[in-house]
Specification:
51% helix; five-stranded parallel sheet; Rossmann fold; P-loop_NTPase; Stf3_sulfotransferase; alpha/beta
């Protein structure tokens, strides 16, 4: 095995050391128990407005994080902040809707939703489509605080530069490479979901086997309804059609289709070995931000198990009558990367939209604005204990 956690800069080392020192001096601030989160969240919003089912979600998340995630002090602070932030976001959306009943009637056109395994080109397609002025690819601030954008006058700084991004890239510069992020870059739906603490996105950042198992038995129906409600706030004074993206939707297509009838669901397919090897590399980097004990073989096992669950669920849904409620578009990863113009034209036809004029130039302009980073993301399947023959046999149901 050759995978190693990214080296930490002197600035990052100082931040981690300060957090550990504070944990030693103020252990009460680093207790992964519901009371810590509830006390913080309740200072901002009444508990009565928290999303239904939040208690079970909070207990499952914190219990797994405490017992299994092997968190450093920065990781503990992140989990506590993430949990309280999701609770207060759900409460604030509910409060805003109650105070502004006109938003409840906001109509949403069927969105374009991009799904697939990790590292299959979903971000590229999502952000490329998001440069079309007719489409609305939500920015991080819009997902985290949609009520700020619901009024006729958006914030003076529509991007709301988030210090969290700056801190994240200081802690782990490789994060900016494996998944470029920032206040001006559209982000995937999981950032705005999980106000009941049910969110597959949490498992991308942390080692949470118990929480993942619990999630697999949960219904996400109410979660998707609440996500639609949050998007209604963004659409109150903005009639662009949403383009959305999250690999995690692959596991929950039944609920996605129910919340967004008529959606155009674009699924990108990539060789399973390439998908899971690259995904394992991504997750290992993510985890190394919040844990000093990342086992690459464990990351590989988690990727395989979770991906099998997601892909089997997607296949079962697509074979069911409920799949008739959405329109599926299948793209082959290699063909998409080799000829993105043809793939885009296919997506636009499925969405009953005319593609941008001068489509090749549209794509070229995107590449100029978002140059690909070359030469830093290196990994092999053996780094994560992936046996290519066994993996292909296990995922033969995809063929």
């Amino acid at each position: 095995m050759t995978w190693h956690a990214p080296a930490r800069s002197p600035d990052a080392t100082a931040i981690y050391a300060a957090a550990e020192q504070e944990r030693t001096e103020r252990p009460d601030r680093y207790r992964l128990v519901p009371e810590t989160v509830i006390e913080k969240a309740s200072r901002r919003c009444p508990e009565s407005l928290f999303a239904e089912g939040w208690q079970d979600g909070l207990e499952a998340l914190l219990g797994s994080a405490d017992q299994e995630a092997r968190l450093n002090a920065v990781g503990i602070r992140m989990v506590l902040g993430m949990a309280s932030g999701r609770l207060t976001a759900g409460a604030t959306v509910a409060s805003y809707r109650a105070d502004h009943p006109e938003t409840v009637a906001t109509q949403l056109r069927p969105p374009i939703v991009i799904i697939g395994g990790w590292r299959t080109g979903t971000t590229f397609l999502f952000r490329l489509l998001g440069t079309d002025p007719r489409l609305h690819a939500p920015l991080p601030a819009e997902l985290v605080a949609p009520w700020l954008f619901a009024g006729p006058q958006p914030p003076l700084d529509p991007f709301i530069t988030a210090p969290a991004n700056v801190l994240l890239h200081t802690l782990n510069p490789d994060m900016a490479f494996v998944h470029p992020s920032g206040p001006k870059l559209p982000e995937e739906c999981v950032l705005g979901m999980g106000t009941d603490l049910r969110n597959w996105g949490f498992t991308s950042m942390l080692r949470l086997p118990g929480y993942s198992k619990w999630l697999s038995s949960q219904s996400f129906g109410a979660s998707y309804v609440r996500y639609r409600q949050a998007l209604q706030l963004l659409a109150t004074h903005d009639d662009r059609r949403f383009v959305l993206k999250a690999p995690a939707h692959t596991a929950e297509l039944r609920h996605l289709a129910a919340a967004f009838p008529g959606a155009v669901v674009v699924q990108i397919h990539r060789d399973i070995v390439e998908t899971l090897t690259s995904g394992s590399s991504l997750f290992a980097v993510y985890r190394s931000t919040y844990s000093d004990d990342v086992d690459a073989l464990d990351v590989g096992r988690q990727q395989i198990d979770q991906s099998e669950l997601w892909f089997r669920r997607a296949a079962e849904f697509r074979a069911s009558p409920a799949a008739d409620g959405v329109r599926f578009v299948d793209l082959d990863y290699r063909e998409f990367i080799a000829n993105p113009a043809a793939a885009l034209a296919f997506v636009y036809r499925a969405a009953d939209m005319e593609p941008p004029t001068a489509l090749e130039q549209f794509i070229a302009d995107y590449h100029v604005a978002h140059p690909a980073d070359i030469g830093r993301h290196r990994y092999t399947s053996s780094d994560f204990g992936i046996d290519e023959i066994e993996l292909r046999e296990r995922f033969a149901f995809l063929n």
